[in-house]
């Protein structure tokens, strides 16, 4: 496998045993909050409203919320108003 990836075995082992970075954990926590808020809105809330919902739960900026939503394909479905 190391030959295929063109890395030394020591580099590969170091990568596998490396602890998860703090920001990765924080992003996963924020993403969970985003998904929960998005599901509660039945998929109708966009970035500004999702940000308003999650900013008190997890420290974040609107740009970070937007990036995570974009990366994970979370986008609002506009309501037609006809039911």
What can be said about this structure in brief?
This protein has 83 residues and is an all-alpha fold. It contains 5 helices and no strands.
List the main descriptive attributes of the protein structure presented here.
83 residues
Report on this structure.
The model has no long low-confidence stretch (mean pLDDT 89). It contains five helices and no strands. The protein has helices at 2-5, 9-17, 22-40, 47-54, 62-71. The protein has a domain at 27-83. Helix content is 60%, strand content 0%. With 83 residues, the chain is mostly helical. α3 packs across α4 (47-54) and α4 (47-54) packs across α5 (62-71).
Number of strands: 0
Secondary structural class: mainly alpha
Order of helices and strands: HHHHH
**Overall helicity:** 55-70%
Which percent range describes the beta-strand content? Answer: under 5%
Euclidean distance between termini CA atoms: 55 Å
List the helices and strands and how they pair.
Blueprint: H1 2-5, H2 9-17, H3 22-40, H4 47-54, H5 62-71
